[in-house]
Each structure stands twice: as structure tokens, then as C-alpha cells.
Amino acid sequence: MPIINVQLLEGRTAEQKRAFAKAITEAASATLTCSPESVQIIIQDIKKEDWASGGMLWSDKK
Questions:
Q1: Could you tell me the residue range of the domain that residue 36 belongs to?
Q2: What are the residue numbers of the active site?
């Protein structure tokens, strides 16, 4: 049973997450030879103020 944990900056719609989950499930089940029902996906929305790259918070980027 693959468990896929995805962290995204907040702001995606439920429809975008739905389409993403469908695409990832299809790719995982085909690649890993498992049933789509066994693929578990955890989507975590991260606030821009809680994510930094290059020493700068994403909330500070313009």
C-alpha cells in the first residue's frame, strides 16, 4: 500500500487537488503494479509564512 505525502503551498482549489490525486493515483498504480484503491495520498497545505527557500519566507517574496 503506497502512501504518498505531498506538501503544497496553500491556495489550490479542491478541484485542483482532486485532479492531482487522480493523476498521482493512476501513475502510482501503473508504475508500482498495485490497485488504485491501495494508493493513499496525504495532501498538506502549508502557509506561505511557514515555508522558506533561499533564506526567505515565501510570504515575503513579491
A1: 3-60
A2: 2
Distance between CA atoms of residues 4 and 20, nearest Å: 12
How many domains in the chain?
A: 1
Residue 56, classed as helix, strand or coil, is: strand
Q: Count H helices and E strands in the chain, helices first.
A: 1, 4
Residue type, 53: S
The gap from C-alpha 51 to its chain's centroid, in whole angstroms, comes to 15
pLDDT tens across the length of the chain (62 residues): 999 999 999 999 999 999 999 999 999 999 999 999 999 999 999 999 999 999 999 999 97
